[in-house]
Amino acid sequence: MKLLLTTLKHTRNPAVYLCRRRCSSPRSSGGLPSLQDDVMVVGSSPELVQTVGSQVEVRPGFITEEEEAVLLQELEPDLRKKRYEFDHWDDAIHGYRETERLRWAPPCEEILNRVRSVAFPRGSPLLGPVHVLDLDKAGYIKPHVDSVKFCGSTIAGLSLLSDSIMRLVKENEPSEWLDLLLTRRSLYILRDQARYDFTHEVLKDEESVFNGHRVPRQRRISVICRNLPG
């Protein structure tokens, strides 16, 4: 499935902070302990954090190292057959390869069911194939909004192999923004206004800074679930 994406540019103002301690289990990446434990989202204003923060979730350590390995074992054979592409069809992604998966081995399906149970209302119709996006270390995702023709009000993604920064910017007001710290093995969820009214992007390695802290980007695989348009 190809997603219709709209690329936009933006600027930033100084940040305020929002604590998102959704998970205090030992399932942490270990790379950024102080950031991971305290602050998962920063924003351009307290008002924005207040209004949009409820529609953005970051759950660090959502899966264990063992569960990450299970997912990678399932995904790597298919991904290795593909080349990284450095020109997306609408210039929204650079340095990527992708696939979709409808059927999963039972241990992976169990993990995905856990994602679905926390991200989507019970009984919500879900998009059948799960989207898998593999970003090269030099890859990045430019600002875009996923087309409402292909997916609904909620996007939920697991982050494998690397920490990264996702940036959300209001489409008609580029001075309003949120940065999300997506630690390795975390789950992020975007809903409603955060999904429709804000672009989202994954920063380049050289731009990957969160709250003044450098967050090195390696190869990153995201496993993304979506619901169907309403």
Tell me what the structure shows.
- With 230 residues, the protein is of the alpha+beta class.
- The chain has a single domain (63-227), classed as Alpha-ketoglutarate-dependent dioxygenase AlkB-like (Jelly Rolls, Sandwich).
- Helix content is 21%, strand content 34%.
- It has five helices and 13 strands.
- It has helices at 33-38, 46-52, 65-80, 106-119, 192-196; strands spanning 16-18, 41-43, 56-59, 93-101, 130-144, 154-160, 164-170, 173-182, 187-191, 198-202, 209-210, 213-214, 220-226.
- The strands form two sheets. Strands 1, 2, 3, 4, 5, 6, 7, 8, 9, 10 and 13 form an eleven-stranded antiparallel β-sheet that branches. Strands 11-12 form a two-stranded antiparallel ribbon.
- A hairpin with a 2-residue loop joins strand 7 (164-170) and strand 8 (173-182).
- The two termini are 18 Å apart.
